[in-house]
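Help! Submission page says 'invalid entity' but I think these are all valid:
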Amino acid sequence: MPISEYVYHRRVQFPETDASGIVHFTNFFKYVEEAEHAMWREAGLSIADPANDLRWPRVATSFEFKRPLRFEDEFDVHIKVAEKTRKTLRYSAELKKDGEVLAVGSLTIICARRPPGQPLRACDIPPDISARFEAARS
Amino acid sequence: MPISEYVYHRRVQFPETDASGIVHFTNFFKYVEEAEHAMWREAGLSIADPANDLRWPRVATSFEFKRPLRFEDEFDVHIKVAEKTRKTLRYSAELKKDGEVLAVGSLTIICARRPPGQPLRACDIPPDISARFEAARS
Amino acid sequence: MPISEYVYHRRVQFPETDASGIVHFTNFFKYVEEAEHAMWREAGLSIADPANDLRWPRVATSFEFKRPLRFEDEFDVHIKVAEKTRKTLRYSAELKKDGEVLAVGSLTIICARRPPGQPLRACDIPPDISARFEAARS
Amino acid sequence: MPISEYVYHRRVQFPETDASGIVHFTNFFKYVEEAEHAMWREAGLSIADPANDLRWPRVATSFEFKRPLRFEDEFDVHIKVAEKTRKTLRYSAELKKDGEVLAVGSLTIICARRPPGQPLRACDIPPDISARFEAARS
């Protein structure tokens, strides 16, 4: 069964806050990436599998911030496969606390390979990996 | 003279890299924010001035990544005021190394105030701060 | 029942690794602090409780590193209250993976208060907090 | 001329602060490492030189914290080679702002090599690298 979405639970840690008293915005991107990696584990995969030479560089990412997070807040990252192409995956993500949307983001990654001594180059997602993911309906 | 753009020079530090051997993408957002704060200092301001009760929460941000950065690379962040409204500033940013564009980003911030015991609320940018910035031509 | 020790389970996240392929050493200090805060929650407390004006600055900390951690490794932080004085708590910590010790650390914190408009100053740990912790036997 | 000490100038960046309003203590270790890498560059070296297979894992590190740093503070890291052995370098470091000592730390690193497909193992510091460093007098 391919995976289309995943909910990742997290608590805010102290160094993620800044002197304005809230979570520094760059951590929202870390939270989405943690959710992505957890979704891959759920799919039986690792985004950095020592057994293959694939890399998954980030192509583009964005966030709109609506409400802040504070120290020790518990929240969920709802991550979805929004689009799957031959070479790329695009995720959409919502951060929610107590049912309220805090932020909405997007992350696009591309499959790449680094032949020894050559630069990284984009390649098709191998079928056994591609088969594990499916774009979410909505 | 209001400021419209600024070039911030930086070197990659080791903890900014990750196990894939390149700078972790979240640091690109930190680099732009460092450039923003340097531009504010250049304008005679601090983004977190203890002498006022203003806050500048980040409303939205995005990045497109074209080429990686590695440990000890030197690069420049070219940040511009792309748009100025009554309450917001939107910056555009380019990361360049040896004249080559590595990544292109955008960051929108809003002026806010936190009255004691009340939630943060958006407010007009005070005239003495607004006067220091001007949207870049191009 | 006062608390003397706590075991905190954690998985390595990608941005915690660096270009040498292992967890950057500064994250070991973050892991211990996360374990400390989890131990405080277990004791019914928050290290940064908005309901009081206490602060817990770090006075000293150290680590000896024996074995590395890698992306997606799961490990435990065994944190103990090694010493409790009127104003300070000293923790010792061991990071373990599969029963093997990866690193051994120490962290000393002091109770402090910041009267409005004055600098932070050390103070006695309030009895209701002190009663929650007890130095471990061994 | 071997190098024995180096002064590294730095400004506090916003994400380095935490919700208590000061620099999170783990960043003091990052500052010392930045100073170390700058000292190596000053000695004509890179701590992560793609041209050799050496690694410099951190063996032990410690810090005593005396005064806090805040956003936009400028400070210096005074790093010294405190001891040089066949396989290790031990640095001592002082963070100073306006001549005042904020924190005092220590960092020990060991020279290691990772033969292909084998675990990392300690080795003697190569003569051309060892010759660039000398323990400071005091």
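Support: the input was valid. A stray whitespace character was the problem, and the output above is from the cleaned input. The longest helix of chain C spans residues 26-42.
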